[in-house]
Design goal:
With 741 residues, the protein is of the alpha+beta class. 19% of the residues lie in helices and 30% in strands. The site of (2R,3S,4R,5S)-2-(hydroxymethyl)piperidine-3,4,5-triol has 11 residues, from loops.
């Protein structure tokens, strides 16, 4: 890996074994983009990549000179108002009312490793040789604003991390109204755009469209990254597939309002922008103040979508997620939410936990309803003290009873919210986000606490830390069940109201950070009504997240498949729940529910006492299976093989690093009469190793399994754990392959 600067041509070349990223200082001092893609040889002079042409109806920068129009050159951080009509990366409102800025190259610094971003989640290095960072400083002479563009290239993988920092070194205050994390001009538009969108309980469904002149965008203006759109997009060449071809993934390490868009201009250049949503954003920069944007990560893959995903998985698993749990196998848990909802007593919880323990579960999680006056969703949020009517010896007492069973204990919080019927709200009615003189809208009868205020975060931290300090709590599920409306903080002056959304997220990160630091062995699982804030920002603090409130196995195929494009399997919270399922009322076989949930963190969302004895025996086998293979499943290389968005059969697999073991998940949604023969070509195996199917005891070479395929239309040869009719709807199998020589 290397970052080089050619003094004579003012050109930067960032490269490793896989990628090259080339940019140059343009004739007017702005930064120009020359190339991003597969690695090319280094040369001093890449100026042939700087393309300009005479074009009618064009505005030019220099009088009497028709060579430079910003509209027609590829840039690194475009500005609006001076010959470029595309959406800008930055916009600054100045005291005289103008918005134009003119950032010109001044200097740069290349350093080893990667600096952290104050107050923000970001990828990191563990030693300096893992990455190099380039910081380019540009200045706008008129305002005195300084722009620092940060680029980190990692030694391994086609990864480039980017962010920007703006500092006001001028004499007057400035309003930053747009400050994107990434701006990237690609030379053509021959791409398909992939987005991961949906709704509550239908998150991260893959949607594909062709780029065309105009704008394609996904965003969130809800305060959370949202169920509707994920802060992640992919541009792939039309002929690229899961296994071959050029793909670029763009991911934003941020949990609040975002914008991700591609603008194709009239000459088929594509500008990708990604960062905090400019709508409603207005950050006052007083003299000497700085603003740091969140980090965006670009991954280039010449090996299709799986290649891109595997790079994201490695990076996010090893150099975004942190702490005690990063490399540890995740505990198999039993959560009481779908088992009891709000209707539980301490004894009932212990009864559920007791059966779970008997089946092999390691962690019992008490969900919503244990605190304040919470017996339904109208009261209690904000009062993080156990309800003595339900838990006579508080959380400490219950945790002791669970630990006494030989299990770990986990607890649900929703730290950012308050009900009006709570002591916290009665004491501090001004602590909610609401606009004076306007209706304060509720969501699920709750209001959003003003986390832009330190005293609010301090107070919630105090209550949570007391419980985590006193009771044996090994896991926290951090929920967030509504988006922000009437966003306004009574603690900030009018000219700073455009900062509230971002300050709110900084408050969330601050609380997470304090809890991480002071309770380093507690495993955090994020949740926002399921997958409403499943983003890389949160992954920095919570290495796993409840992927969706939809726990139906068939629905989960699409949700987990879509999630896997950016996020590692070890981050995907996935549980077995009852049938009929509580969200879609579908009946699926118990083995299929587990076969889907294995490809995630695994757990149960039900009362195991209510299963038949035969089913309980099956659960014991499932848990034993997960214990045996979770290391492989959660840390191996994941391949998507057949897509639920394209057909009736879904298939995916995980291979360990040594290529000696693989687990394949195969799922058929609907059954048909007289079905065709089916084979699935596997990937990632060693062609010369001979693998034994642990169920059928038949063995095949890796090249057979990859070039001919695994025959999946072989009736009972798969792992069928329950006699539900192996040819019925919602059938599935898990194949375990082990190298035998
Ligand atoms: C929404 C979460 O996604 C559920 O799992 C559960 O924790 C409920 N909130 C509790 O209110």
């Amino acid at each position: 890996m290397s970052i080089t600067f050619s003094e004579s041509t003012k050109t930067f070349h960032l490269y490793n074994q896989e990628i090259s990223y080339i940019m140059t200082v343009l004739p007017n001092g702005h930064m120009g983009q020359l190339f991003f893609g597969k690695r090319v040889h280094h040369r001093e002079d890449f100026s042939y990549l700087y393309e300009t042409a005479f074009r009618p109806m064009t505005s030019y920068v220099y009088e009497g000179d028709r060579s430079l129009s910003l509209e027609h050159v590829k840039q690194e951080y475009g500005v609006y108002g001076t010959t470029d009509y595309r959406r800008p990366a930055i916009e600054i409102l100045q005291t005289d009312g103008s918005r134009i800025c003119d950032f010109r190259y001044q200097r740069h610094v290349i350093s080893k490793g990667k600096p952290s971003l104050p107050g923000l989640p970001a990828t990191y290095t563990e030693n300096e040789d893992e990455a190099e960072t380039l910081c380019i400083t540009l200045e706008d002479e008129v305002t005195g604003a300084v722009l620092e563009l940060l680029y980190t290239i990692f030694a391994r993988g086609g990864i480039l991390a980017r962010s920007a920092r703006i500092t006001n070194l001028g004499k007057e205050s400035l309003h930053l109204t747009t400050a994107m994390s990434l701006c990237m001009d690609l030379p053509d538009c021959d791409y398909e755009w992939l987005q991961f969108s949906g709704a509550w309980a239908r998150e991260r469904h893959l949607k594909v469209r062709r780029l065309e002149q105009g704008i394609l965008a996904v965003d969130s203006r809800r305060g959370n990254s949202s169920h509707e759109h994920n802060p992640f997009i992919v541009l792939k060449r039309p002929d690229a597939s899961e296994f071959q071809g050029e793909v670029i993934g763009f991911s934003l390490i941020y949990s609040g309002n975002f914008l991700a868009q591609a603008e194709v201009d009239t000459h088929d250049t594509t500008r990708v922008l990604m960062g905090i949503h400019p709508m409603g954003f207005d950050w006052l920069l007083e003299k000497g103040e700085s603003f740091q944007t969140p980090e965006a990560v670009m991954v280039y893959s010449g090996h299709g979508l799986n290649g891109m995903s595997q790079t994201f998985h490695r990076l996010y698993r090893k150099r975004l997620a942190r702490g005690y749990w990063r490399d540890r196998a995740r505990p198999i848990l039993n959560n009481n939410w779908e088992a009891t909802y709000f209707d539980f007593t301490e004894d009932r919880l212990v009864e559920i936990a007791g059966k779970a323990k008997e089946c092999g579960v390691e962690l019992f999680v008490l969900d919503d309803g244990w605190f304040g006056e919470r017996s339904n969703d109208h009261a209690g949020l904000g009062d993080w003290v156990a309800n003595p009517k339900r838990l006579s010896r508080g959380i400490t007492g219950l945790a002791e009873r669970i630990e006494g069973l030989g299990m770990k204990f986990g607890l649900w919080f929703e730290p950012e919210m308050v009900n009006k019927d709570s002591d916290l709200y009665r004491k501090h009615p001004d602590w909610i986000l609401s606009t004076p003189g306007r209706t304060a809208s509720h969501g699920r009868n709750q209001y959003v606490l003003d986390f832009s205020r330190k005293e609010v975060v301090d107070c919630i931290y105090g209550m949570m830390a007391k419980i985590l300090g006193e009771a044996k709590v090994s896991y926290v599920k951090w929920d967030m069940n509504r988006s922000i409306t009437e966003c306004y903080s009574t603690a900030l002056p009018p000219e700073r109201q455009g900062e509230v959304f971002h300050r709110y997220i900084l408050g969330v990160y601050d609380l997470y950070d304090r809890l991480n630091r002071n309770f380093p062995e507690v495993l955090f699982e994020s949740c926002a009504s399921g997958g409403g804030r499943f983003d890389p920002g949160i992954l920095y603090y919570a290495p796993q997240g409840w992927a969706s409130d939809d726990s139906d196995a068939v629905e989960r195929l699409k949700i987990q498949y879509g999630t896997s494009f950016a996020y590692p399997i070890s981050s995907i919270g996935s549980h077995v729940s009852v049938t009929p399922n509580h969200q879609v009322f579908r009946n699926t076989p118990l083995h299929t529910r587990a076969n889907v949930a294995y490809f995630g963190t695994f757990g149960y969302e039900l009362d195991l006492n209510k299963l038949t004895e035969e089913e309980q025996e099956t659960v014991k086998e499932q848990i034993a299976f997960m214990k045996e293979y979770r290391e492989l499943l959660q840390s191996g290389t994941f391949y998507r093989l057949l897509s639920p968005f394209e057909g009736n059969i879904t298939c995916w697999m995980v291979v360990n690093e040594a290529q000696t073991e693989a687990v394949v998940g195969w799922y058929r949604t609907l059954s048909h009469v007289n079905m065709p023969y089916t084979r699935v070509r596997l990937h990632g195996l060693n062609p010369d190793f001979c693998y034994e199917d642990q169920n059928s005891r038949k063995s095949y070479y890796g090249d057979e399994l990859m070039n001919i395929g695994l025959i999946t239309s072989d009736g009972l040869s798969g792992q069928v754990e329950e006699n539900t009719g192996e040819y019925g709807d919602f059938d599935s199998r898990v194949y375990v392959l082990k190298a035998i020589r």
